[in-house]
Design brief:
By secondary structure, the chain is α/β, with parallel strands linked by helices. It is about 40% helix and about 20% strand. The chain contains twelve helices and 14 strands. The relative contact order is 0.11. The structure holds zinc ion (ZN).
Length: about 325
Amino acid sequence: MPIPFLPASAHVLERGWLSANSILFLDNDDAASVVDTGYVLHAAQTVALVQLAMGRRRLTRIVNTHLHSDHCGGNAALQAAAGGPASCTITVPVGELQAVNAWDEDALSFRATGQQAAGFSAAASIAAGDSLDLGGLRWRVYAAPGHDPHALMLFQPDARVLISGDALWEHGFGVIFPEMVGEAGFGATRETLQIIEALDPACVIPGHGAPFVDVAASLARARSRLQAFEADPSRHARHGLRVLLKFQLLQQPSIAREALRAWFEDAELVTRTARCFWPDCDMRTLFSETLDGLVLAGAARLDAGLVCNAEMG
Ligand SMILES: [Zn+2]
């Protein structure tokens, strides 16, 4: 369905929450580009969706807003389907170029979050202040630190459309990962929200969820959420743990409670967060509390020894 405010050359491919949106740009009659590529478990679906939407055009460029597993998981499959690196380049935020080309899973987030990825290398990078042409329009690149220190946003000033990644969703924003391990991230998040407000977008294409136009309301919700997290950083850390657990359930909608607990106790980001905020709490208790939080929120349900994903109403 066409979305008012969006350029005709842009197509938002939205799926469930696990895979970030892909934004396909029809650059001309022969070529197309895509921004973000979803989670690796959906890679075959991403290739099919992109091929369907671009028709006889060839995919020549993949651009990532940031390199979380749910934004770059289709890079390798899309590039392979397009004929390999000589036909289709991958462009990543400049701060991640070295890590991705060395496939340094410690510097990238996949190992710490216990999430999956398919390896790829990048031929190019973008940085705040750059411009790039997508769908016959010129987009400006803005820094969007907070959720991820290297994240970028893309803004088209004539259409006033913002591709926000996980810096702003209609209802919230992505977990501020540095804060989970006691590193600063709230201030950067606030600055990123200020940048968005100053750009005054008419429409935001978020990393997850449908494009939205009431940006002022979303910014107000985001700021109020941020304020609550800043007042009590442990509240944010608990939220982050629930998000990581929910991500596992989105991947595996029915999983033995003990298997989920084993994943939780083994994930580096979880153990680092625990050490930082609740050094005296044992992991078994922390897992139970995190799972209880998801169940209370309606995001998971327990069925005998299984934990099942539940759709939040
Ligand atoms: Zn993200």
